Amino acid sequence: MIQALSGYINIILSYFYNLANNNYGLAIIMLTILVNIITFPLTKKQMESSKKMQDIQPELKRLQDKYKNDKETYNKVTMEFMQKNKVNPLGGCLPLLIQFPIMIAVFTLLREPAQIIEAVEAMGKTFNPNFLWLDLTKQDPYYILPVLAAAATFFHQRMVITDPQQKMMLYIFPVMIAGISIRFPAGLVLYWFTNSLFSAGNQLFIFSKGKKNKNEGLTSIQEKTSTGEQQTGKEKNSQTGKSGKEKKTGNLVGEKTKAPKVKRKTAKRKKKGAKRKR
Q: Which of 60, 58, 59, 46 is nearest to 88 (CA)?
């Protein structure tokens, strides 16, 4: 499967080589862009799943401390919590597993440049491995690309790793990449360098979009809250106005009921006075 996939990628790379006017370095960069475009939906899903897992880590830690003596209850409560928050613990792994064959196929192709050389010569052209100061079919004698690849990996890992327990990987992994890159052809290191830059760009784009949506959600909630408060205030004012009107109406009715009573009393007094005179 990997060999077949590597053959298809070789056809695409040879096409890009011809399109880039026999520039092997530009062809590798164009291949990197294409691979990132194809795998972007999977990368997006993987990053979003990882971000959700990072967001719920404090709550998971609280549940772990609460049920540290009861693993069965802890597992049950944790699964219910993840289902409620729509978090799949395997959501970040599945997209990576799908991308993995593509990564291995590209790695195999660029590690052994004989395939691309044969494909270019089959088109009746002479293969040109030079790009800037480098022969991309050989190791970088100045170690510039390995250092750049390690720096790009560090920058990308710094964005991805947020767990303090994994902080050592932030430094170990770039050093490993630098050590490996020294031994591989410069074309493969160029692919890793450009791919790390594009991965960091994807990360920034997805996270900035997520923050924007989150802020919009908070704004809508605040607007709903303020609208609810305004409606509550209006209802209170209308109730206050109604009670005031009722009080006024009650006073007027009271005054009207009092008036006939006063008239009756005065009439009685007049009758008594007339009787006395008689």
A: 46
Residue 26, number of CB atoms within 10 A of its CB: 15
Place of tokens 């693993």: 71
Band (pLDDT 50/70/90 cuts) for residue 47 is confident
- On whether residue 54 sits in a domain, the answer given is yes
Domain membership of residue 134 (yes or no) is yes
How many domains are there within the chain?
A: 1
Torsion angle (degrees, nearest 10) of CA 16, 21, 23, 29: -40
**Strand, coil or helix: 163:** coil
230 within domain boundaries: no
Could you list the residue range(s) of the whole structural domain that residue 120 is in? 2-225
pTM of the model: 0.69
In contact, 78 and 63? CB cutoff 8 Å: yes
Digit-coded pLDDT (tens) for 81-100? 888 887 776 666 666 777 78
